[in-house]
Amino acid sequence: LAALERQVFDFLGYQWAPILANFLHIIIVILGLFGTIQYRPRYIVVYAIWTAIWVTWNIFIICFYLEVGGLSKDSELLTFNISRHQSWWSENGPGCVRKEASMSGIKGLDNHSYISVIGCALEYRYIEVMHSSFQILIALVGFVYACYVVSVFTEEEDSFDFIGGFDPFPLYHVNEKPTNLLFKQTYLFLSPPDFSGMEGMNK
Predict the structure, then answer these.
(1) Cα 63-67-71 angle, rounded to 5 deg
(2) In a 3-state reduction of DSSP, which class is residue 116?
(3) pTM of the predicted model, to two decimals?
(4) Which residues pair with 31 in a beta bridge?
(5) Reduced DSSP (H G I as helix, E B as strand, rest coil) percent helix, strand, coil of the chain, to 5
(6) Neighbours of 13 (CB within 10 A)
(7) Strand, coil or helix: what is 142?
(8) 152 or 53: which carries more pLDDT confidence?
(9) Does pLDDT of 164 surpass 70?
(10) Which residue of 43, 50, 54, 99 shows the fewest CB atoms closer than 10 Å?
(11) Which ranges form a coiled coil (predicted)?
(12) DSSP SS3 for 114
């Protein structure tokens, strides 16, 4: 749900790089849930690997909006240099008032307007940082849970008993008799009875 909420606001701000990242994240989360329900540890491992990538991506977003390491929040990096759009929160944050001023008095800027945003209770970059921090927290919890589920599934597979297949003392134990003893029982059953001793007793 948090990823869907973030995807909506990134669409409103035309932030193409975050849109693609959020889309991949939603797909991998669905894959991880499917693996948990259907007992597919490989899908859960894929989700666990993705959470590491997702944490790295969100750390980059935090550095981008805080302008760490030469990054600039005013650059067009997140829009692939296609447009000059910024975060949707830059004009629609809590308490923000959007004003437009005509630029008709300046040559070359006729029919254009200058947009100013004032009165914001919280700067938009901090809202984006809060979003990314929350995503990191959820990803860390998901990584721990994924590792736990994989370990449980692995233990169940190792201890599963295919009719005593992995049990050193199987439940359905067949007491096999030696071959020579079986032949001896068959010979005694098929040989005719001896009545020689019975004739002496009758006399």
Answers:
(1) 90
(2) strand
(3) 0.67
(4) none
(5) 60, 5, 35
(6) 22
(7) helix
(8) 53
(9) no
(10) 99
(11) none
(12) strand
Residues for the chain: how many in total? 203
Distance set, CA 128 to CA 4, 71, 93, 162, 193 (Å) = 15, 15, 11, 53, 100
C-alpha distance from residue 52 to each of 45, 72, 144 (Å): 11, 24, 11
Helix axes 41-65, 16-37, angle to 10 degrees: 150
Q: How many CB atoms neighbour CB 130 within 10 A? A: 12
Q: For 12-26, 30-44, 166-180, which range has the lowest pLDDT when averaged over its residues?
A: 166-180
Partners of 100 in beta bridges: 115
User: Mind giving me the DSSP string for the chain?
Assistant: -HHHHHHHHHHHTT-HHHHHHHHHHHHHHHHHHHHHHTT-HHHHHHHHHHHHHHHHHHHHHHHHHTT-TT--TTSSGGGTTS-----THHHHSTT-EEEEEE-TTSTT-TT-EEEEEE--SS-HHHHHHHHHHHHHHHHHHHHHHHHHHHHHHHHHHHH--SSSSS-SS-SS---PPPHHHHHHHHHHHHSPP--HHHHHHH-
